[in-house]
Amino acid sequence: MMKTHLRRTSLVLALLMLLTMTACHSSRFMISGLSDANLPSAGEKYHTATSSSYTSIQKSGLYELMYDEANFAIGIRDTSGFIWYSLPSNSNKSGAMLSLLLTDGKEKYALNSQDHSVAFGTATVAQEKDSIAITYKLQDKAKGPNFSIPVTLNLKLDDGQLIASVDASKIDTGKYTILSLSIMPTFGTVASPTAEDFILLPDGCGGKISLLGAENSSYVLDVYGRDPADSNDNPHPALFGAYGVKHGNSAFAGIVTSGDALTQVKANVGDSSNAYICFNYPTDETLSVAYKFISGSSASYAGIASMCREQFTRDGKLSTRSVNSSSLVPLAVTVTGGTRNKYENIEDIANVLKVKGINSLIFKYDGVISKYKIAKNVGSKSEFDSMRTYFTSQGFKMYLTMDYMNFSVSSVPRLTSKIASFMKDMKAYNPQGYCISDVGSTLTRKGSTTRQEFADGIFSQTIALSTNKHLMVENGNLYTLKNASVISGIPMTTTYPQGSHYEAVPFAQMILHGTVNYMGIPFNENGDISKSKESILKSVEYGALPTLRMNFDDSSDYFYDNLTTDALDLYNKFNNVLSGVSSEKIIEHKKLQKGLYMTEYNNGSYVYVNYTNEKIEYNGITIPAMNFLRVN
Q1: How far apart, in whole angstroms, are the C-alpha atoms of residue 123 and residue 9?
Q2: What is the rounded distance in angstroms from the CA atom of residue 514 to the CA atom of residue 321?
């Protein structure tokens, strides 16, 4: 065991760290009234990586764990000699291994490992056989609160990946409450970006920040959406806790492996670019992040997505099974139950589409389950049985939409009891499957239950609900997807506005394709389908199913009889371009030139999508205007 104590001290709060945190304007915790914001910094030397002070202490696979005994920081070196540093390699005052935000109920206090421990000489390190533990004893300043808070960061290089964790339940803060904790917030900082360098965020479908020349900007994403039980009003959710960074010929993915429901993903770019994950409400949780590395031609956002998929599968969040390899791409239809959309009407709609030549259908039936019971205004049980029998005989799928929050539970055991009771009551109806609506989009705490406890409870109960049933999930929060067959309304763009340095990419779709089918919102949701050409192209580009909203009301814009021609046209077009790839992984996605995109599947299929009003000639093939083409 090795213990090292560092030198002299200066008393401070890091101004730049505070500015970084306040710049995240959509955070769960806004920082204001900091009583010590006018104090000087400890100096750049504690915040900056100096390559000469790093020594190798552990190897695993192709990677080495490097340790900086001067600043109690680390780096990861690959076989090419490239090092990912935990502190910025350029002149910087915001780099840190840990940052902590506390409150006494009145004031908020921001502490970090470098200014409040390393600079005081109170950091220590213990090395075990395959890991190291760095303890930062966060100290106060002379005229401020009497802080003395030890926080231990555990680091392990295993199977070529770095695991960083903090057991937040062991942090003794006395009378202070932890508002947020960030583990290695500046790991992988890109100080001098090249033209191909980027940060990849789980913003909607996925957002790629091109770093060269990017203006100073901040992004804050709440994993699994904002919690309505909090005052948080951040409109930027994430389906999962993961991000990526590419610099030169190397890239890595940062993936939350414990405490995901407590997590925000934050990115800052510009003069001192960095990407980092920030944890909120960590007082009773073990928080853990896995950093997975890749280099060479695989250092792309497709490569990062592949590493995330592998980790989510390893952690049991995604199924190991593949989508049914049927050659037919189903048309997904959403209907809402009521006096004009009874069971017999739904059967009629499906039958008409079948007669038209649509041989693969998925129906999402909203408004049938109300307050965990079958609604009475949509038909009798015998009519339900007839509808179910017809769908089963044709090989069609029917999903009845339900909301977990209708159960009005205040604890995980209560949720378990309610789901068990619901499943017992539904046995007589024996539906093909369910569509989980609310918690697939937003995770909220109930009573004294934490978000993490509730997410874990929903995860286990969703598995129970899907036993011998098909499962659809709206939006696609990761903790609901273990046994899902379909995702409805998956994000197809970003929540932050796109621009010259920020663009949408199919990060989520590259993780999920081949494991679960998905579609966006119905093409005719916001009006005439002729106005949805770009949405249709985007669905083809991202490997999504065609989808429409229909009903049995002849006075409605969604009247099925007026949509059968469009439905058949979509069905045929999507089958021409996506038939046989539903079980395949997306292994590459590129913008080839302005308005032209390519998606590659691991069976050797290439799909080209042209968003321009002119045909495009590319590598000997012609992609028609506002159209797509598949090449095998």
Answers
A1: 11
A2: 9
Q: Phi and psi at residue 251, in whole multiples of 5°?
A: -150, 160
Structural contact between residues 378 and 343, judged by C-beta atoms closer than 8 angstroms = yes
The amino acid present at 406, given as its one-letter code, is N
User: Is residue 225 helix, strand or coil?
Assistant: coil
Q: How big is the CA angle at 621 (ends 620 and 623), to the nearest 5 degrees?
A: 150
Instruction: Name the β-bridge partners of 608.
Output: 598, 629
Give backbone dihedrals phi and psi of 156, rounded to 5 degrees, phi first: -140, 130
Q: CB count, 10 Å around CB of 565?
A: 10
212 phi, psi to nearest 5 deg: -65, 115
Residue 526, pLDDT score = 83
Count CB neighbours of 436 within 10 A.
Answer: 27
Give the bridge partners for 76, in sequence order. Answer: 65, 84
Contact present, 397 and 363 (Cβ < 8 Å) = yes
Q: Give the type of residue at 232.
A: N
Report, as an integer, the average pLDDT of 207-232: 87
Q: Which two tokens stand for residue 68?
A: 């900086």
CA distances (Å), origin 166, targets 28, 255, 279, 327: 21, 15, 11, 47
Helical axes 564-578 vs 533-541, angle rounded to 10°: 30
Output helix, strand, coil percentages for the chain, rounded to the nearest 5. Answer: 25, 30, 45
Whether this prediction's pTM lies above 0.85 is answered by yes
**What is the reported pLDDT for 9?**
31
Order of strands, sheet of 108-112, starting from the edge strand that comes earlier in the sequence: 108-112, 98-103, 177-183, 274-280, 263-269, 217-223, 237-238
At 81, list the tokens: 């000699």
Mean pLDDT, residues 211-222: 90
Average confidence score pLDDT of the chain: 87
Q: Tell me the pLDDT tens digit for each residue of 11-27.
A: 222 323 333 333 332 22
- The encoded tokens of residue 179 equal 């508002």
